[in-house]
Each structure stands twice: as C-alpha cells, then as structure tokens.
Write a structure and sequence with these properties.
about 10% helix, elongated, Immunoglobulin-like, five-stranded mixed sheet, mainly beta, five-stranded antiparallel sheet
C-alpha cells in the first residue's frame, strides 16, 4: 500500500518546476504590458517625392497605458526622434535637433502630427530613404518604435525656367516649372532658387495638371510668378509665387464662356481674365471645428 503522502509528494514535484516557471511568465507579461503602453505609427502619403519638396510624415501616438500620460524630454533624451538611413546604409545626422514641448495624451486617445522630414534631415539627394520613428516614455525609461517606412527622392521634368533680378539689387532668383507623372495623375511643381549661390528656397506642388494644356505663366512688375493651369475639366488653378518661394495666393477658376487666361496690364500687374472665381462656402461659426494638430499650413495647395 503506497504511503499516505504519495499524492502530496506528486503535488510538490509539480509545484517545484511551476515555482521556477512563474517568474518567467511574470517577466513576459510585464514586458508585454510595457510594450502595449504606447502605440506609435508612421506614414507617408506618397512613395515618391521631388528633390527639395516637403516630405510630410504623419505621426500618430496612441495612449494604451490605461491612464493619462505625459511625453517629455528627460536627461537630454528627446521624447521623440527619427532615424533616417540612406540607401547605401549611411545614417543621416539631423540638420538641427528640435526640442518639443511636453505632450499630454488622455487615456485611450491618439494624437496626430505632421512633420516635414526634408526640413530636419539632408534628404535632397536622389535615392531611397528608410525612416524609423521612436517615442521615449520617461515614466518607463523606454523607447517605443513605429514600423520603418520608405520613400524615394527623384527628379521632375523641367518645362519652363526664368531668371529675374531682386528689386533690392541683391542677386537673382530663378523660377522653374516642372511636371511629375504619378500612376493616376500629373502634378505641376514650382521651384525658386538662387543658382549662383546654390540655394533652393522652395519646391512644392501647385496641384494637378491636365497634360493636354500647357500651364500659363507671367512675371509681374514685382518679379512675382503667376501660374494658371488646367487642373480638371473646366477648372483652372491660379497661383502667385514670391521671390522667397512662398505661395502668396492660390485660387480656382471655373470656365465661363471661354477659358481663363493671364493678362499682363500696362502697369505691369497680372490678372486673370475670363472664368468665374470659385469661392468655397465658409462653414458657419456653429459648425466650425477646432483646428487639429494634423492640419496643414494654410500657405500650401492641398497635397496630391
């Protein structure tokens, strides 16, 4: 007859390895819990960008900690940063280290921001770039990473160029219009640069372009560039670009009896003749929403 404590010894034998196994389980659960504290996502709207064009990264941070959190710098550790690698494996040093104010995120909510990679890293050379985003959570002394993303910097097809003098007499500026064909449309780009000094002040899209119609362009008496392009059937897009590369004006015109056209007046000013100005209906004060962190600056046309 087996001893009365036989079953107890079996329980003890089973309990011994379980006792050694429990700490491992706890460590895995704690690691999983820490990993789930903050979720980070990184996206680019397009795979391809023109050299010196703004490369806008959309960053989304979600708080899964079960409590309100604050992301902040600590001990010279910035609470978020990018790792940008060129196609040859070189890790690119940032042009400038930007310190961000602390960010509070209520539990269960997300915050989205748009950040221009082109302003922060030297990505003007042609090629493929790999980008990884990290967010530092000081409360846990831990980094959280987004999946790496890729974009390509390429050239556009030049279609027009004009060099003008600065009214102050300090050098020259060169305006260039370029086109780039995407899978489903063609976009018109403008670039403003000082070729003698090798400085590019701006490169950005003026919007879509219907290929059968060449864009119209004029230089006014202040040496600002006026561009009128057919962006869709019976719709024209009108832009005014300054010597510093800033977009001064952007508007849409609908076809009337004839197509809109640029007209240079005797005093050197440039106006749009023909067409009907397309004025969007402004929302009422009651329906206006609070601006989001993800809103684009108002001085650029909508992204293609």
């Amino acid at each position: 007859m087996p001893p009365r404590n036989f079953h107890l010894r079996g329980v003890a034998l089973t309990y011994a390895p379980m006792k050694r196994f429990l700490p491992c389980v706890l460590l895995v659960l704690l690691a999983f819990s820490a990993q789930a504290q903050v979720q980070v996502d990184l996206k680019f709207k397009r795979l391809q960008y023109i050299a010196h064009e703004p490369v806008m990264a959309t960053v989304t941070i979600t708080n899964l900690a079960g409590r309100d959190i604050e992301l902040r710098d600590q001990d010279e550790q910035h609470w978020y940063g990018f790792e940008v690698t060129a196609n040859d494996g070189r890790i690119l040093a940032p042009l400038a280290q930007v310190s961000e104010a602390p960010l509070q995120i209520p539990t269960g909510t997300s915050v989205t921001r748009k950040i221009n990679i082109e302003e922060r890293f030297p990505v003007g050379d042609l090629g493929v770039y790999h980008v990884r985003l990290n967010v530092y959570f000081a409360d846990l002394n831990k980094y959280f990473y987004a999946h790496a993303r890729v974009f390509e910097v390429t050239t556009a097809r030049p279609i027009w160029q004009q060099t003008v003098g600065m009214p102050s007499g300090d050098g020259e500026r060169t305006y260039s219009l370029m086109t780039n064909r995407f899978p489903d449309h063609t976009s018109l780009y403008v670039r403003v640069e000082d070729q003698a000094r090798g400085l590019v002040y701006a490169t950005y899209s003026l919007g879509r372009l219907i290929s059968f119609d060449e864009p119209h362009k004029e230089i006014d008496r202040e040496n600002q560039l006026h561009v009128l392009q057919c962006a869709a059937p019976r719709i024209w897009s009108y832009s005014v670009v300054g010597l510093d590369g800033k977009l001064i004006k952007h508007a849409s015109y609908a076809q009337a009896r004839g197509n809109p056209r640029l007209r240079r007046m005797a005093d050197g000013t440039v106006t749009v003749a023909g067409g009907i100005l397309d004025v969007p209906v402004a929302p009422s004060a009651a329906t206006k929403s609070i601006p989001k962190l993800s809103d684009r600056p108002a001085d650029l046309p909508p992204e293609d």
